[in-house]
Amino acid sequence: MTDPDRLLIESTRTHRERLLAAMVHGPLTARRKVTTNAGRFTGSLVLAAVLGLGTVGAGFVVGYLDRQENEKAVTAFQEALASNPLEPRDGLVEDESTGLLYDEERDVHLDPATGFEVDPETMLATDPQGRLVDTRTRWYFDPETGYYTDPATGVTVDPDTLTVVEEK
Which residue windows are transmembrane per the record (predicted)? Predict the structure, then answer.
C-alpha cells in the first residue's frame, strides 16, 4: 500500500468511529466534560474551614491555659497575703503592731522566714540581690509601678485590681 491510500483508510476509519460515537453517545458538546473548578473550590473551602477551626480551637486552649495560670497567680498572691507564719524566738520579741520579730540587741525588725532586716513602715526587706521583698507575701515589689512579682513563676500582679500585668 502506498502512503496516500493508508491516509484515506485511516481517515475513513476515524470518520466512522466519530459517527458511531455520535450515534451512541449523542452530539459532541454533550459528550465533552465541562472542566470546572468546583471540586477544587469545595476542597479549598473544606480545608479553610478545618484550618480556621483548628486555629480557633488552639487559640481557645491557649487562652484558657493563660487564664488558668493567671488565676493561680492571683490566688497564690491572696494566700500569701493571708498567711503570716511568724513565731517569736529566744532573744526576739514579736512586735504586735507589725507582726515582725524585733531584735532588741540590734534594734531592728526581722523577717522570721528569711532573716532579712525589714522596714516596719513599708514591710519591705531587701534581699541579697538588691530586690525589694514584701515580707508578708515573699513576692518581689517594684516601687516604681507598685506591682508584685511571684518569684516562683515570674507572673506580675497589680495588687489594686488583682489582675495579671503583661510585661512589655
Answer: 41-65
